[in-house]
Amino acid sequence: MDWINSLFVEQSALQAVVVISLICAIGLALGKIRIFSISLGVTFVFFMGIFMGHIGITVDPSVLNYVEAFGLSMFVYALGLQVGPGFFSSFKMGGLKLNMLSIVIILLGTLFALIFSYSLSVSLPDMVGILCGATTNTPALGAAQQTLNRMGMDSNTPALGCAVTYPLGVVGVMLAILVMRKLFVKDKDVEIKETKGKNKTYIAAFQVFNPAVFNKTIKDVAHMNYPKFVISRLWRDGHVSIPTSDMMLKEGDRLLVISSEESSLPLTVLFGKQENTDWNKEDIDWNAIDSQLVSQRILVTRPELNGKKLGTLHLRNHFGINISRVYRSGVQLLATSELVLQMGDRLTVVGEAAAIQNVEKVLGNTVKNLKEPNLVVIFLGMVLGLAIGSIPLSVPGISSPVTLGIAGGPIIVGILMGTFGPRLHMITYVTYSANLMLRALGLSMYLCCLGLQAGPRFFETVIRPEGVLWVAVGFVLTLVPVLIVGIFAFKFMKIDFGSVAGVLCGSMANPMALDYANDTIPGDNSSVAYATVYPLGMFLRVIIAQLLLTFLL
To answer: Which of 434, 481, 439 is closest to 116 using CA atoms?
Structure first.
């Protein structure tokens, strides 16, 4: 039985791999169990690590620290790489308003945490851990631990606070959404507001009967004060064609137009008459509509196209084709000339078969290129992130220099690489499944090590009076800020409930609550709002955790 003892008890590199892998496997399996439609997912690895640590399972401290640091840096870098392409654009138009609401939630929670810390005599490291658990933000916890290590203090204290408040942190956001839904929102209002997806394209057929557009080019008509649109096909005298921007519209022309649903009425005024045929059904065979043109979806897989505007390719003029729609992350986008292309975009191209083959060569359409991640960028980005995270920054009034640490540095570099990498001819595209794999692997490793470190003191902390106080404070930090901002946004700012729910989930970095919102609220506004506020919210919480300990401890 010595071999069993060497696998699970005797501290070694082999024993560390076995124990960590076993904890991750059991935790991930149990995390799939749903109770009242709620599951903890990868977070269950944390509690499995706590249990193993409590019963006396230990791992060599140096190996544990390595796995914890490697897992956390991998997770935050992959996270930054994923959200990078949309990070800066999220501040435009409605995204700025949603991000401001998210910032208010974050600042309110931080303010309440400071008030509770001083009024209830809870140490600041403990309160930072409580805040991280209440907001279900493990990268912020990692940043706090790194800050305490740099200051020569015990870094396990925040982990205990995070562990005892994390479960109610998950449930608290769901409870806030439920309370708002029951008290302020009517089902009919939710359905009406959620079905008007502004990001979704709408296809309609029009006939040209408005004399104001007779003998005008499509370019001239497009510059009129009307909503943006794309003309996919034009029928004239029984012949179908792909209209160029210089083609003139004639009386009686029949147009297949892609725009948004709310644009139907103004476009009817512009062209003259809208047909009653429903062109938005999923079972339409576009290739059977006419025998002269073919409709095909083509993937953008050439790295040099990442970040370029669609209009700069001049595909319509060079090949006589038309791009009617762009599919990105399950969302249909209008293919205007100003649309910035990303690797993995799926373009709906209409034209003759020979022309489409030529367009394939321009766009790539090589699925293999998307399935093979560029590992050089992954490891190089982590090196740069850790290097930047280690740079000492002198702050007036602070005796010791401040660093971004292994949580702040990699996420900043990940965001920058995802945003600007293609402009430097770097292949930074990673498929969603590959990115999810990196994040899940890194987070599982980090949570496992975190649980093993917190396990020996977890249960004795919970049963003490201060443990109950921590749980209560954490629940308040979760529930109160999201309710205040959520109710204000819905009742006074008139933001639809789906978007409000997404902001609440994103600002609290709570994907489990987002799953609940998607299950109970029609439409995809919750997911869109979540993705809009998540990057900035995650970044702010990582930085705030370090600033609190650096300036106030």
So the answer is: 481
Per-residue pLDDT tens for 448-484? 887 888 778 777 777 777 788 888 999 999 999 999 9
Residue 548: phi and psi, rounded to 5, are -60, -45
Identify the helix (H) or strand (E) that includes residue 462: helix 432-463
| Burial label, 378 (beta-carbon count in 10 A; 0-12, 13-18, 19+) | buried
Q: What is the CA radius of gyration of the chain?
A: 27
Q: Which two three-digit tokens encode residue 310?
A: 């669609």
Sign, Cα dihedral of 86, 89, 94, 96: positive
Pairing status of strand 202-208 against strand 239-241? unpaired
Give CA–CA dist 71/115, Å, rounded: 33
Q: Compute the distance between CA of residue 415 and CA of residue 74 in angstroms, rounded to an integer.
A: 13
Measured from the Cβ of residue 293, the count of other Cβ atoms closer than 10 Å reads 21
d(CA 155, CA 285): 61
Tokens of 32: 């799939």
CB atoms within 10 A of CB 253: 22
Residues facing 231 on adjacent strands: 257
Q: Which residues pair with 331 in a beta bridge?
A: 328
In terms of Cβ atoms closer than 10 Å to its own Cβ (0-12, 13-18, 19+), residue 288 is exposed
Write out the two tokens for 355: 């022309």
Contacts 24+ apart (CB under 8 A), 68-72: 68/445, 68/446, 68/449, 68/450, 68/453, 69/406, 70/442, 70/445, 71/441, 71/442, 71/443, 71/444, 71/445, 71/446, 71/447, 71/448, 71/449, 72/138, 72/139, 72/142, 72/406, 72/407, 72/442, 72/446
Query: Range with the lowest mean pLDDT among 27-31, 164-168, 429-433, 436-440?
Result: 429-433
CA distance 402 to 391: 8
Q: What's the CATH fold of domain 202-369?
A: Alpha-Beta Plaits (3.30.70)
Please, what is the average pLDDT of the chain?
A: 79
Rounded to whole angstroms, what are the CA distances from 400 to 268, 280, 394? Answer: 66, 62, 7
DSSP 322: E
Q: For the chain, how far is it from start to end, CA to CA, in angstroms? A: 50
Going through 279-419 in order, the beta strands assigned E by DSSP cover 294-299, 322-328, 331-334, 346-351
> Which residue, chain included where needed, has tokens 């309370």?
179
Can you name the residues that pair with 207 across neighbouring β-strands?
254, 273
Residue with tokens 């001083």: 118
Phi/psi of residue 390, each to 5°?
A: -95, -5
